[in-house]
What we know:
alpha/beta, Quinone Oxidoreductase, Chain A, domain 1, Rossmann fold, 6-stranded parallel β-sheet, 15 strands
Amino acid sequence: MRQDAQSRAARLQAASHIVLENVGVRPPQPGEARVRLEGCGVCGSNLPVWEGRPWFTYPLEPGSPGHEGWGVIEEIGAQLQGFAVGDRVALLSAHAYAEHDYAGAEALVRLPPQLAGQPFPGEPLACAVNIFRRSEIQAGQSVAIVGVGFLGAVLTQLCVRAGARVVALSRRPFALRTAEQLGANATIGLADNGQALHRARQLAPQDGYERVIECVGSQEALDIGSELVGTRGRFVIAGYHQDGDRRINLQAWNWRGIDVINAHERDPARYRQGIEAAIDLVVSGEIAPGRLFTHQFPLQDIGAAFDLLARRPAGFLKGLVMCS
């Protein structure tokens, strides 16, 4: 590639205002690969920065906050071992709303030929697999999943596959239908939280669920999940809570002796393991994330992808931005 080569990257200039910029394409540094991105998933955790919450400053760096990228290695730097030009990879990076991004070996996972042509945002799949691992789901357990976006849908698949009895709760009828199709034993709408809790308790064994996984990242979802955990159960916080303090009923948590797990990984090695496990699950057919990628947008229409994420209309579960 020429020294003066240019690449397109989306840049969030201000709340709800994103533009494409031409940025220089540099050679990869030692131990690093330059990846020609095929696409990047649009994560629900990106919504606050799109909407313009007060703790963000603008403009963001080009390609940020895209972190669910996959593509093909275009060039490798000195000392990078285990990868070659032409390898198709999922990568853990932070600037993947672009045509190119960079990552070291610790942030790259090779995709096998069986996944050729298939979108594969590795980071959110790894997130689901790692949350499932930390939930310690066992066959025969009753599991309540609060929130059925992409994460809740993949977790529904994983829990059903493990032999658990799954009750899924969501505000959106489309999400509930999706959970049913993925094998949930029961679904409950959240139009009225009081009625939803009553119905969920009727479906629970004894005094509550053995596992509750909260996948929303809101105070409301935290409250609902807390109410559903049974004595000595496990409450798994999988939603990304990024908008300030939270309130909990610690007396109830103490009285029931529940385990509380913050299931967000921050160790790149754990994320790599999660991506590798997700690859095996998809190749074997044990989970099928492709049906959950409901919308695709070219890079130049990334603003429409964020608008759709904010509105979450019927039929929407997860959007992908196709970068090349």
